[in-house]
Amino acid sequence: MENDLYTVAQLRDIERAAYAGLEPGTLMRRAGEAAAQFALELLGNSRDLPVLLLAGPGNNGGDALETAAILADAGIDATVLHLPGQHETSMEAASAHERAREGTVGFIDMLPPDAEWGLVVDGLFGIGLARPLEGEYRALVASLGTLRCPVLALDVPSGLDADTGAVIGPDGIAVRATHTITFLGNKPGLHTGDGRDYAGQVRVATLDVALECLPAPAARLGSADVFGRHLAPRRQNTHKGSFGDVAVIGGAHGMAGAPVLAARGALYAGAGRSFVAMLDPGPGYDSVQPEIMFRPADDFAFERRTLVIGPGMGGSAGAMRLLAKALDSDSPLVIDADAINLIGASPELLGRLAGRTAPAVLTPHPLEAARLLGMTAAVIQADRLEAAREMALRTRATVILKGSGSVIARADGAILVNPTGNAGLATAGSGDVLAGICGALLAQGWPAWEAAAGAVWIHGAAADLLVAHGVGPIGLTAGELPAAARAVLNLLVADAG
User: Fold this and answer.
1) CA separation for the pair 326, 245 (Å, rounded)
2) Count of CB atoms within 10 A of residue 254's CB?
3) Which of 54, 113, 244, 393 lies in the 20 to 30 Å Cα band around 76?
4) What is the mean pLDDT of residues 253-271?
5) Helices (H), strands (E): how many in the chain?
């Protein structure tokens, strides 16, 4: 249930269906109880400090008022900064306001300049916000940046789009929460784009809504369960040919490092053999990883190999010929970097890709995705799930839209949002390693969907493992990822066994 991601429209339908069988105000009271319990956990031993609750004009504000009343009953010094709107509130929110007023909850009209809080609860706006925060709301949210305490958002941080993970408005502002308790169902916007920076740690409170009220989710959070059936221990009676060949095609003049990193990623993720097919003359071997074999790309045989094409490939006529040859082959493909740009500039190459029957995985970052779809990177980032879905539909391939909360999409509309990884991955060559890992999983017989989901999850978990051991996120390098990915993959296999 926590891995299921629902759109705002779906959540409205869930809410209406739940209301039909409940007494008015039941869901708001349940939301307040769940939020108050989480707030008490976050306070820990600091329950003597006051809690500030920001209550907006709608039902999200009602949730905050319910939370305040319950915290006050538990002996917490709860103070509400209430910003009522100009329109009449719902009956439920009005009742919550009355309950808070009847107890020991304090009410203030403005944020005290030097007050010390144990916790701030954001109940300004929930999923219904459609325009940027302005006026007193914007000023209030901006002032929260000076507070040094945990911030708990109710349902979704105010100012963040629950569907897309984008801060609302071109110059928008949002509450930067350390924790979010989200109601009824999980939301994609909490896990991709700006969402991971603004939502913090996310907890789902279903509010005891019956399962029959829940539709099929719009997307899911990625997990090892998606690819778990392929995590089998290796038999003893095997050889290097049992685990496939990966050939990385790239390495134009001055860009030899990219294919080498991809080839290392493939080797450490279990490929039986790893090749680099160089467009231009380059190194004869990798002194760090001499197991990688180097060949000229022009006469390299593509058959019976998984191809990773694009790292450091450039945009020459020779690169385009090699890409056309790869697209016409029956080999499983990982299409990365310059190869994506060439396809975006050529309707003919796009047609060849869409007409393939062999597996293909595209791994664009937002700018490459923008070139492929003929739009700007800002438009891509404004709705990452829809952009990934559109790319998968156009290319008939599995797509990994990289970034914070990478999005994996396939042509039938299925979407995953990856939860692993950290800012250490924002470094040159990280995507090349990801492409190599994906190629290795394809070479070992994983279907494209599971290979893409597994590669992204393992790649992110490798970065998390490095950070947990004091390597990064600042200064983490792509060259450190392959060995960490190997460790993650072996741990997964051991756990699965």
Assistant:
1) 15
2) 10
3) 113
4) 97
5) 16, 18
